[in-house]
Amino acid sequence: MSQLVLDRLLPDMSTPTALDGAAALDRAPAAGREAATDSSTPVRSAASDPADLRAAPDAARRVTVAVAAPGDDRPHAGDPVAFRPTSGVALALAAARADAVHLSFSAQVPTVAAMAELVEQLEDEIAAVGRERAGVSIVLDLDVLPTADADVARRKRSYLEHLDALAGLTWKPSATRVVAAPEAVVGAAVDLARRVGVDGVVLVPLADGPAVDHLRALAPVA
């Protein structure tokens, strides 16, 4: 496997991620599924990149969804060995030693298609060291902003898109951040996990508030 390819795709964890909307999910619609029109679901952008089009997600894949725990991030006795690789070398090391590998969107992995490719590369590394795929949990850390309802979500999404434009980023965070009511956040996370092939999603709220409390009531705390 090309080290250059791995380093190109791996997220730079030192780069702040400001993710927005469930637009990426719309760029890869499930076969036979109509685009969402219910006002309770996130508004998604039109397809713009043919490379992002993917096959229907594996509906049979079991996906775990949890909300990132605030506060203490230090490892404790009995915790699984978790890696957040930032280079091709780190990815290979994670494949050999980790119980869980956490991935996230970034300028290096800016789209659903790129994340799916990175997951496939990690799976290749796991197989190359003789480990079973089932022995390694691949987790997507996903920035989310749960809101009171769809109307608030639309306003927040527009505001965050404006901030992203002012920041002059080299990628489009709005393609992968989920801004929606809590139930829609969980549904979008499961759909995204099935598309890219991960085993679970850790939702990382961008702000606190009643909607985040509601989200934690829907999903366990990681």
From TrEMBL:
One of its GO terms (molecular function) is oxidoreductase activity, acting on paired donors, with incorporation or reduction of molecular oxygen. SUPFAM superfamilies: Bacterial luciferase-like. Residues 13-55 are annotated as: Disordered. It comes from Cellulomonas cellasea DSM 20118. InterPro entries: Luciferase-like_sf. This is Luciferase-like domain-containing protein. It comes from the Bacteria. Residues 18-34, 44-55 have a biased composition (Low complexity).
